[in-house]
Amino acid sequence: MISKQQLIIEKAVELFAQNSIASTSIQDITDACGISKGAFYLSFKSKDELFIAIFEHFLREIIGQYNDLLESDMPPKEKIKNYFLLHFQLFEEKLPLISMFMKEQMHPINEQILQRLNYYRDLSDKTTLALLTEVYGKRIAPFQYDILTSLKGIMHGYSEFILFHRQPYDFVQLSSTLIEKVDILVEHSKNTFLTEQLWNAKLHCMQEYSVTAFEVQEEINRWQETYKGHPIIEDTLSIIEAELQLSSPRPALLNGMMTNLKQHDNLQWLALLIKQYIAQLS
Q1: Does residue 4 contact residue 228 with C-beta atoms inside 8 Å?
Q2: Would you say the C-alpha torsion 126, 131, 134, 139 has a positive or negative sign?
Q3: pTM, two decimal places
Q4: Which of 34, 48, 255, 269 lies at a CB distance of 3.0 to 4.6 Å from 64, suitable for a disulfide?
């Protein structure tokens, strides 16, 4: 069973993509969900808060799947090929949502939202860097930040082309093309602009974000209704909840529970949150 919050997000995405955010009322959303306005406001205080939740949901899904790929057992070269493939498949799948984000003008971004956006971007960069290092080894080290930045630019360029020139594309071929481009960058890079000092200075400019037990609990709450009655996940969520209440949560136990979560696509973000939370305990 899907949770009420998840239902609202899914129906809102459909309506926003069809009619724009401005022309979609909360009444339209509640009618599509078959719920009352009161039930809506129990999940979201406003349409703006819902919009931000959709944006976060989108980023969490992408980063969660990237991290799952990074931790898989496939050969490194296959990982990076699947990384590119996953990126463009998700881009194609979420195109109505991406178009909506590009068309809509959000209200001025407050510090809390900016902090969250920086957090997601930093997570994505770390995952991509880890993947590049696994594929190319130590030889990438002197140029890793330049290559990461160049790769992001190349992927953005192809994504923009796909967005504005709609037709079927062979993403397997595109993935192979991108591997070739990265191979060239790695083999022929000689000069460095983005040193580790410059990169770390960028990170210091961003306010540090830590995953809290409360945030992990909030994510658990999102999925409890969906997995109610599930023979493994219901117990897993309950065990994690109990562990979060302790003054000294046990990393080994949380790590074991995280393994159960990774078997389910919906729970990749929760697994990643717990992974970060465990890292902060040490």
Answers
A1: no
A2: negative
A3: 0.69
A4: 269
